[in-house]
Amino acid sequence: MRDPKDRRREGRILIDGVKNIAIALRSGIRCTDIFICQRAWEQPNSALQEILPQTEPGLDRRDSRGDSNGDSNGDSVQAIRWTRLTEGPMQKLQYGDRELQAIAVAVMPSTSLESLADRLGPSTRGPERELYLVLDRFEKPGNLGAALRTADAAGATAVLVSDPISEVWNPNAIRASLGAMFTVPIAVASSGDLRKWLRERSICCYAARTENGSDYSQVHFAKKSAIIIGSEAHGLEDRWKSEEITPVHIPMYGKIDSLNASVTCSILLFELIRQWQSA
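Below the sequence we write its predicted structure tokens.
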């Protein structure tokens, strides 16, 4: 399951760490298996208590030899197979040298643009306001995860991922998001399909540019807005240039282009929120 081809073929994702698993469960993500470090299981005050109540009843616990020591009665929405692993097998399963207490296998959530409307929750800012973050050709999973954290903090309606270079459900992206990938609706599509979708819904678009754009603090953001951010390596391509898209930039006073993509997301999203709150 560490191979992205295997995950796509099986329609599964990996969730590393108890906190991410707990957020996924609370968000309705369907977990099928959870692998537990034996040492963590034996600790009465383990962080595992965050996820245990969310999986009962219908709990099927197995140890690393495959011997069942619990029966699943099938009554729970989250009837999950539990496998306890000693440190050796657990280290082989986890990514890198992190000491994780738990790793979950979950059904890959939908990211289709067609189903996005059905996945949107009630707006925290009223039905007349919508805020979308568009991430174009992001290639580093860590940047994607960090951008999702910012989107969650800003109460974004959804994150729209345009032509991603890296896998959206990469375990590193999930880990970097601190669970935000399960709290913010995500849609993945081509730039053309996303532009059409935004245009049909009368969403005003603002593209972050390093030059030739209006000072972000002088732009009046609309009640229905989309902030478009390009990758750190390539920025936004010409396909995001049109009369219907307003270019904006963040003035910098140093000698290098020093703002990374996730910081740019934070500045623009919260300037928009500030304007909404001041209106």
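Residues 252 and 259 are 9 Å apart (CA to CA).
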